[in-house]
Amino acid sequence: MSDNISVAGVSVDTRHWIGGRRVVSAGTFTDHSPIDGSALGEIARGGPAEAEAAVAAARDAFPAWAATPRAERARILHAIADGVEKRIEELAIVETTDNGALLRSHRRGVMPRVAHNFRFFADWLLRLDHEDFETRGHTNHVSWDPAGPCVLITPWNAPLMLATWKVAPALAAGDTVVLKPAEWSPLTASLLADIAAEAGLPAGVLNVVQGYGSEIGDALTSHPDVRRISFTGSVPTAKRIAESAAANLTPLSLELGGKSPLLVFADADLDLAVDLAVEQYDNAGQVCLAATRMLVEEPVAEEFTRRFVEKATALRQGDPRDESTDIGPTIHPRQLEKIDGFVQRAVAAGARAVIGGHRKDGQYYAPTLLTDVAQDSEIVQEEVFGPVLTLQTFTGEDEAVRLANDTRFGLAATVATGDRERAERVTGRLVAGTVWVNCFFVRDLQAPFGGSRQSGVGREGGTWSFDFYCDLKNTVTAPKGWSQDHG
């Protein structure tokens, strides 16, 4: 296999990055672009041997990196951010080609946010502290000690941004990392390895290995030298990872799926509510936080639906590299089959497709709205992860909250209302890790992020990230007993 492929004129190394050098595998897998199905190249296909080598490299690099002063770790993270900012255009076009998300979004929002991830955690590290406190004259001092090698397994829908949500705090904490990107979108993780090396990150501190699911994943998550595992993805995969990690009691952070509601009350600004609803088609609906269940109060349901259909049908679907495109393709033929299966089963069970409900040419699925759906139906209860929304009506707050909470998930919720007191009442009763009121997708890195129920375990962001990636230690010192005073 060739070591490098050209993606829209950008050279991308297809080998693993282990211990500060490029490593080949005996096998490869083909990476395809969802835009047109074309083969982008052959990617190194790792297995247990590559997993072992990557964990060993992270283990060997850990003592020196953990002992590196905070200020120096922060400096290197800022240097990585500098490298990202210099290559925003390259990162944007490679990721758009690899996963089909909008190029304009990658240029203006996603890749700048990647750089921000590194800067934020570098700065947060330097002010991470806990005030000492007294217990019967004894001094308690809390410290965040680096935990050790971390395995980070990331998804395909926002590959680099979601990877760096994990990589940045882990490195800031003094941990070493083995990053395993999704096999459907592996390319920008390879570019990140190049950028980190150029920024002066020591060999072995960040390792990147590619491979198909359990072929390499089981070896990583069951390794006794791994001290933390962070995963973003599906519930079934998370259960497998938890089983694998259980033998070593390795702590887990799991950000999983969602079936989030959008509650539209009759007193809401309907234009705003419709804008929020149409926004759920972002990234072809391949967003874990998407409010795919629209719950609309009966008096405004007809008017809301009319305005929604008018706005949604005006969306332009096509090549994500085109500035005028609003919705791109689904990531993979298997995902397209999954989405269509959900929709066709729902229609067969009595649902009505107000818009969409069908495939388009290539890997594109028409933005879809389904009505006449039962609360206990598959389409309401299970995550589709595509441009498919459902609409149900309610009468009053109690029914709205009951319907909103009636799934096994609890990742997020969005509320549209013109009544501040109602917003406070309703948000207090919703089961969700994040609730947005009259807005959507506002995400500050200092806030906790994660899900309730089967939407996840643990929280990321700010101090919560350091709590996970560190071993918290409390040192209690007596006021007397010193044999010498060097003060």
Strand residue percentage: 15-25%
Shape: globular
> Mean of the pLDDT scores?
95
Low-confidence stretches: none
End-to-end distance:
64 Å
Rg estimate, integer Å: 24 Å
- Number of continuous helical runs: 15
Q: How is the main sheet built?
A: 7 strands, mixed
Measured as a percent range, the helix fraction is 25-40%
Spatial sequence of strands, sheet with the most strands: 16-17-18-15-14-19-20
Question: Pairing-aware structural class of the strands and helices?
Answer: alpha/beta
The total count of strands amounts to 22
List keywords for this structure.
alpha/beta, 7-stranded mixed β-sheet, 487 residues, 22 strands, 21% strand, 6-stranded mixed β-sheet
Fold and architecture overview:
There is one protein chain. With 487 residues, the protein is of the alpha/beta class. The protein is 40% helix and 21% strand. The chain has 15 helices and 22 strands. It has helices at residues 48-67, 70-86, 88-99, 103-127, 159-173, 187-198, 213-221, 235-246, 270-278, 298-312, 333-348, 378-381, 397-405, 420-429, 462-469, and strands at 4-7, 10-13, 16-18, 21-23, 27-32, 39-45, 133-135, 138-146, 149-153, 176-180, 206-208, 228-232, 252-255, 261-264, 293-297, 352-355, 368-371, 388-394, 412-416, 434-437, 456-457, 470-477. It has a 7-stranded mixed β-sheet, with helices on both faces. The longest helix has 25 residues, at 103-127. It is globular, with a radius of gyration of 24 Å. The N and C termini lie far apart (64 Å). 51% of the residues are buried.
